[in-house]
Amino acid sequence: MPSDGPGPVDVPAAGREKAATAMADAATAWLDSLGENQLPLAAYDSPLHPDAEAERLRWFYTPTEHGGLAIRDQSARQQSLAMRLVATGLSLAGYATVTTVMGLENVLDQLEGWTVHWGRQRGRDPGLYWLRIFGRPGDRIWAWRLGGHHISLNNLVVAGRLVSTTPCFIGADPATTELVGGTLRPLQGPEDTARQLARTLDADQFRHALLHPSAVSDIVSGNRPHVEHGDTMMHMQDLWRGRFADPELDRLVNDIDRRAEAGSGYTESDHARLAITVPPKGISGRDLNEEQRHLLRRLVAVYTGRAPESLADAYDTHYACDTVLDMVHFGWAGATDAGEPHYYRVQDPRILIEYDNTQRYANHAHSVWRDLTSDFGLDVLVEHRAHIAHE
Predict the structure, then answer these.
(1) Strand partners of residue 143
(2) How confident is residue 390, by pLDDT bands cut at 50, 70 and 90?
(3) CA 132, CA 220: separation in Å to the nearest integer?
(4) DSSP code string of 74-87
(5) pLDDT at 334 over 80
(6) Cβ contacts of 301 within 8 Å, gap of 6 or more
(7) Residues 6+ apart with CB under 8 A from 322
């Protein structure tokens, strides 16, 4: 998506190198532990191979097959090494959030009466998170991905530096779970911070921020490899790896989409109103007061704070700049009351953040952090390949 504005976030080279080294060490240890029957699922030899690159750009957040070696198909030791790799791509808080979401599959299974199967022996399975490596750790170009229901982590390393950590998707179903003496809300920060910001807006500000009176039923960017001007919400049927062999499951997906659309009340014109655009929709940071600007910075940070600390700190520094924050737009759709369906978007020339909590009576949340100019590190790869071609 072309845009004008500030350049990339300036992350010190040492921070990118430290993150890449930790990833390479963990990935090597995991691959070395695998058997001959596991390796073909776990790794593509080269991320430059067309099939490998096409697969790297395919990502999902539905309970479909994500590609790779599933956690459940590994020994206990291999699982530990796999999770060690996952942890290198996240902050401590980010890792805790991701692993909590993975465990929520057990709660969702109970919530649905143990009946949902998606053509598998167990439809809601905390072991069905797939890890895959593209290329060989330590090579000039390599990447890795963890994907499963409500999780997609995508990382690219070029020349010994971590250059991309997006798309980064984390969802939660249920979004709110009662505990003994407490409540579990993995996406509490992203939801409450945005709602607090929306509710501080005066009438004129809220008019500029309001994208639609009712919430769209899912994030708008979906699982596209690239986000473009004019993109509208992808429907449920397009968020899976192919079609089901069982026509009953296809009908189930269609029915879920139908119910979601009926709940939102959206028509094609409503979806067009929510389209992703350049320039962004919503209210800009320059039109917020200091308290609201503080909340906007905090909202961005609960997404960029998923990344390893050196990257997260660089994002904090980047958005501390007033002229940078001036270009950030915040848009809201739906009610601002807790427990009601809602959607919001944060966008500037590079970053795109989306959040929705609409399904299952506003107890099923999706959140994504994307880079409009360099998801999957594609701009860095183009530059790198051009440099190699001229050597």
Answers:
(1) 134, 156
(2) low
(3) 26
(4) S-HHHHHHHHHHHH
(5) yes
(6) 312, 315, 316, 319
(7) none
Give 7's contacts (C-beta < 8 A, 6+ positions apart): none
200-226 pLDDT, tens digit per residue, is: 999 999 999 999 999 999 999 999 999
Q: Which residue has the higher pLDDT, 39 or 383?
A: 39
- Return the SS3 of 95: helix
Cα–Cα distance between 69 and 49 in angstroms, integer?
A: 19
pTM of model > 0.90? yes
DSSP code, position 377: G
Nearest-angstrom CA–CA distance, 135 and 359: 38
Tokens encoding 61: 């957040």
Q: What is the 3-state secondary structure (H, E, C) of 186-222?
A: CCHHHHHHHHHHHHHCCHHHHHHHEEECCCCCCCCCC
Cβ neighbours of residue 195 under 8 Å, at least 6 residues apart?
336, 338, 342
Cα 197–chain centre separation: 22
How far apart (Å, rounded) are the C-alpha atoms in residues 28 and 26?
5
For residue 246, the one-letter residue type is D
Q: Are 332 and 352 in contact (CB under 8 A)?
A: no
- Whole-number Å distance between alpha carbons of 81 and 269: 48
Q: Which two tokens stand for residue 341?
A: 């369906």
Structure tokens at 326: 């001036």
